[in-house]
Amino acid sequence: MEYSPLYPQDISLIEAAADVIRRNYVEGRPTAGAALRGASGWIYTGVNIESCADGPCAEPIALGAGIYHQRSRQWGNFCRTASLRKLQMLVVFAPDILVILELVGQRVKTAARVLHPTACRGFAEG
Q1: pLDDT class for 83, splitting at 50, 70, 90?
Q2: pLDDT number for residue 125
Q3: What CATH fold (topology level) applies to the domain 8-125?
Q4: Mean pLDDT of 6-33
Q5: What are the extents of the domains in the chain?
Q6: Which three-class secondary structure string do you get for the chain?
């Protein structure tokens, strides 16, 4: 897999995702945060919503905020502070978005489509 090193603007995404968790953390409840940079340079964050079922995750909330505010689907980088369970959704809506992750103790970034190359197959063929 291709991985790229992080730059200062990538660190700001990690900090934004961590901040949204700090501001919304409830003891004993799972909290996940996500942050993405739009093509405009603005950072959009999301936090998961808990419910008795499986509520919305942080990724689609951050993507929705970005689409709403910048009225565009052009993205820079993305960071999620927990596992990338919803990676398929990212690949469908933003396959070239660079995902920041920790790999063997080192933070790196790579395109979502590289991490989940078969996610779009059903949409392209159907």
Answers
A1: very low
A2: 36
A3: Cytidine Deaminase; domain 2 (3.40.140)
A4: 85
A5: 8-125
A6: CCCECCCHHHHHHHHHHHHHHHHHCCCCCCCCEEEEEECCCCEEEEECCCCCCCCCCHHHHHHHHHHHHHCCCCEEEEEECCCCCCHHHHHHHCCCCEEEEEECCEEEEEEHHHHCCCCCHHHHHC
